[in-house]
Write a structure and sequence with these properties.
about 160 residues; elongated; two-stranded antiparallel ribbon; four-stranded antiparallel sheet; binds zinc ion; 6 strands; single chain
Length: about 160
């Protein structure tokens, strides 16, 4: 069973599961362990991965208890058994990150606020009916702003 993490691929935008190919660096909490050798502090590790859809390379930053990551880093646990720790190892960062879209200030505030959630829902192929309703609202807001701009500037004609 492979150890894999849900990501939205930054290259192809597909929601997918990127598997852990190699743990290549880690940061145990030596300070905490020195204070209390019996403590099991959270450690951080970097994992090489790739998108199964487009094969784009990914670096994942994961966190788990020292007692779980230490044997993996010491190569005491074969990669075929990493999947047993799926519930104990959390994805905290992905590089490159999924691109965030930013909008010009000319785009109305209501639309700028609605877009990030809408884009994530669309990428994850969820909430289709809700997304359609949001798109309708966005169009209404855009039309209202265009009409407002047209009434202030007679050169601009609103669409019929
Ligand atoms: Zn991809």
């Amino acid at each position: 069973m492979a150890l894999a993490f849900r990501v939205i691929c930054p290259y192809c935008s597909e929601p997918t599961r990127a598997s852990a190919e190699a743990f290549f660096r880690w940061w145990p909490d030596e300070e905490e362990l020195e204070k209390n050798p019996l403590a099991d502090p959270v450690a951080t590790a970097a994992v090489a991965s790739y998108c199964p859809e487009c094969e784009g390379l990914l670096s994942l930053v994961v966190q788990g208890k020292d007692s779980i990551l230490r044997p993996i880093m010491a190569e005491d646990v074969p990669s075929s058994e990493w999947g047993h720790y799926q519930a104990d190892i959390k994805l905290v960062e992905q590089h490159p990150g999924t691109p965030t879209v930013s909008f010009s200030r000319a785009v109305p505030e209501e639309i700028r606020q609605a877009m990030p959630d809408l884009l994530e829902d669309v990428a994850r192929r969820r909430n289709a009916a809700g997304n359609l309703a949001i798109c309708g609202s966005i169009l209404e807001v855009a039309l209202r702003h265009i009409e407002g701009a047209a009434s202030q500037n007679p050169e601009v004609t609103p669409p019929e």
